[in-house]
Specification:
Layout: H1 5-26, H2 42-78, H3 87-103, E1 111-116, E2 120-122, E3 126-137, H4 139-150, E4 156-163, E5 173-184
Antiparallel strand pairs: 1-3, 2-3, 3-5, 4-5
Length: 196
Amino acid sequence: MNVSPRDKRALVWLGLASVFALTVWFWPESTGSVERPVNPGDLPLAERRLARLRQTAAAGPGREQVLKETLADLGRREAGIIQADTAAQAQAQVLQVVRRLTRAQAPPLELSGVEIGPARPFGNDYGEVLVSVSFQARIDQLLNLLADLASQPELLATEELRIGGATTKQKVMTVRLTVSGLVPRKLIPVKKGFAF
């Protein structure tokens, strides 16, 4: 077999390139860390940074305690959220509380109308269900009802209050009261479609 001088040169260069590639491939890596020289001007900056890190580390347990207290307070407050499987069941529970409170007044108040309002979002994590009731009451009965409503363990609030004029000597007024109850957000239907 005849090898031309050009092919000989190519084989020599191929051999040299292979030796170089194998040398680079199997060269041991250095495991030691590279230390940079200490600059005396960096020392005050490093001390301030160390002081900030120590202060942050010392505040950690205090922050954890505040977080635990806040979560416990949130748990106590969320205990009043109306628990139901659907928004309609939550509205029925609100109506049941309102009926119980109106019957507890002296003399008991009779509901002349009930209207179930829409369920709507309340912030990012909760929902709100509405129930409106109509009745006739004296001013002292209305004030007692509102005070009793505020003292319930459920998270209820007066959404709207309309009072008509007194019609008799007993100063009986026509009242329309809308009560809202706080529910989990999962009970609120998601609106689909375009938002403008």
